Amino acid sequence: MDNILITGGAGFIGSTLANYLSKENKIVVVDDLSMGKQENLISSNNIKFVKGDVADKMLMEQLLSEYSFAYIFHLAAVASVADSVERPVATHRVNFESVLTLLELIRQHQPNLKRLVFSSSAAVYGDELTLPKQEESVIRPLTPYAVDKFAAEQYALDYYHLYDIPTSAVRFFNVFGPNQNPNSPYSGVISILMDRYKKQLAGEPAVFTLFGDGSQSRDFVYIEDVIQALMLVATKEEALGKQFNVGTGNSTTLLELIQAIDKILNVKLELKFEEERSGDIHDSLADISKIKTLGYQPKFDILDGMKCYIESEFTD
Ligand code: NAD
Ligand code: UD1
């Protein structure tokens, strides 16, 4: 059994990963529960939950000197682009400073680490128009969130080249699935949509606010494919010191998505249109050729993923 640290492990992607890996490993989760929930984690003797701030150097030093980790997944972050535009200083502390602190602590205390996987974002590409985005495409970060993700990702990869710390980075596109918290205005759009559909089906008032005209598009990738990608990037030798797009290679506009869910659930969601959010990217689409060389093959298109997600939400 390996020891594995998952920061942000009570959040959407982190908890799914922790639950999956806990079958055969000892997992330590650090999360301040600002967005995550402890209930996202299954009850297991193999999961130790630590409530705390990942930017707290003392706490992190204590953990990294107490355990020898085989893998570290650094997923803790303020995940909302719009929130980073509202609170650039506070989000910088988590989204950038915690990464540099962690890298230094690994250098001092983790000689047996096999891999640190850093969760970067498609947001680093910004609004340059060429699509799909390859890892070597123009980088034009437009928001504090995107600047921090790019800087932190580059630090993580440079620590491999400079100090031989085994690192890799993933640039997630728009991930969706169960356990994504819908309760903030800054939550991922599909979790908010799901919340409104559930309310509508329960006969409660439900309006979805669409920022812009709904023609913006995203490469929505289902959580199970993201777990597949994380496993490959963490374990393949060829992934050392490199970053990989994680998406599907297909994009969907928000209006197309809403029409598709309306059809699956046989309802018509009420929409309210508001002005586009500042810093919002209009279109995003991944070229996934690089991660395919590691053996990645997405199994879910947006419709398959939505069907699984809807099924899990309505059978709870
Ligand atoms: P999430 O908000 O569900 O998970 C992030 C977790 O980090 C939350 O549980 C939150 O409570 C925790 N956290 C925040 N600040 C913390 C702090 N100071 N100390 C400890 N814990 C803290 O988001 P997610 O969708 O699971 O995203 C996971 C990672 O992937 C993030 O780094 C995010 O930026 C990145 N990412 C996500 C997406 C996506 O579409 N979901 C896309 C690109 C990148
Ligand atoms: C998302 C992720 C971010 C990640 C990026 C990578 C979250 C919260 N954000 O950002 O971590 O780095 O993908 O591609 O997981 N919208 C509405 N109404 C709403 C909410 C959103 O119209 O109530 C719109 C937004 O304005 C945007 C689109 O939906 O145009 C997607 O928004 P969001 O889910 O926040 O994703 P990104 O900003 O792409």
From TrEMBL:
PANTHER family: DTDP-D-GLUCOSE 4,6-DEHYDRATASE-RELATED. Transmembrane segments: none annotated. The lineage of its organism: Bacteria, Bacillati, Bacillota, Bacilli, Lactobacillales. Residues 4-247 form the NAD-dependent epimerase/dehydratase domain. It comes from Candidatus Enterococcus courvalinii. It comes from the Bacteria. Belongs to the NAD(P)-dependent epimerase/dehydratase family. Coiled coil: none annotated. This is GDP-mannose 4,6-dehydratase. InterPro entries: Epimerase_deHydtase, NAD(P)-bd_dom_sf.
